[in-house]
Amino acid sequence: MTTAGVRRTRPGLYTGAVVAVLAVINVTDHLLHPPWWVRALEGVGLLTSARLVGLTWSELGLGRDRLRAGCLWGLGAIGAAAVVYAVGVLLPPVRPAFQDVRYHVPLPEALHSAFVVIPLGTVLLEELAFRSVLWGALARHCRPWQVLVTTSGLFGLWHILPALHVGDTNRGVSQAVGTGGSALVVVGTVALTTIGGLVFGELRRRSGSVLASAGAHWATNALGIMFGLVAWHLSPEGG
User: Fold this and answer.
1) In angstroms, rounded to a whole number, what is the distance separating the alpha carbons of residues 117 and 102?
2) Where on the phi/psi map is residue 61: left (φ > 0), alpha (ψ -120 to 50), or beta?
3) What is the distance between the alpha carbons of residues 41 and 129, in angstroms, rounded to a whole number?
């Protein structure tokens, strides 16, 4: 095999290994339900492996020269998400979509979820996994559009297991399709999170920094909790 062939093969093998590890993490986490900090360690472990195989900070979307751009794009995404959520919560027909019983909790608990558990236990792992490590590995042997589509598709599939319980916890979903893990809920969740992955990935691509996608990702999840509290306050009985 030529040197060029070796260079193409090794990134491909590492990419396959990352996908396999992510599949194991996904299944294990949903079977064992480890503490949130375990997921943070999993993200750090993926990042460490990427550095050991030679991916640079820039390839991983963590280059110093792109930090400012990443922060600006991320803050813009947070602001946009806040506006969308505010409008949704104020519209009675849309409000049930924000009423998730998992987050119908006292304010201190909601704040802990929004500012500790989600950024460190969800966003850190998923952004390092999909928009940093997997993105950087794919970029070595795929075209930019292939990187975006692949990471987004896998990000959507990552949410199959959580989708099995969405109808049991979210009023909007249960009213529309019933409780339990119906095929419609699973397909819808995968489709929406794939679209989300495309948005997050495009932010990462345009800014050159994973901070941009991390900001959007955090806003999507954490602001959903905070505005969910408002939704429950406005309709305490879910009416």
Assistant:
1) 13
2) left
3) 12
Collect all residues with Cβ–Cβ distance below 8 Å to 69 and sequence separation of at least 6: 207, 208, 209, 212
Structure tokens belonging to residue 189: 């969740």
- pTM: predicted TM-score of the whole model, two decimal places: 0.88
Query: What residue spans define the domains of the chain?
Result: 3-234
- 91 neighbors 230 (Cβ within 8 angstroms): no
Residue 216 · residue 79 · CB < 8 Å: no
CB 204 within 8 A of CB 210: yes
The list of the chain residues with pLDDT below 70 reads 1-9, 166-181, 237-239
Which residues does 142 contact at the CB level (< 8 Å), separation at least 6? 150
Q: pLDDT by residue (tens digit) across 66-76?
A: 999 999 999 99
Tell me which residue of 87, 103, 108 sits closest to 232, measured CA to CA.
103
- Digit-coded pLDDT (tens) for 120-166: 999 999 999 999 999 999 999 999 999 999 999 999 999 999 888 76
Query: How many residues are listed for the chain in this entry?
Result: 239
d(CA 222, CA 217): 8
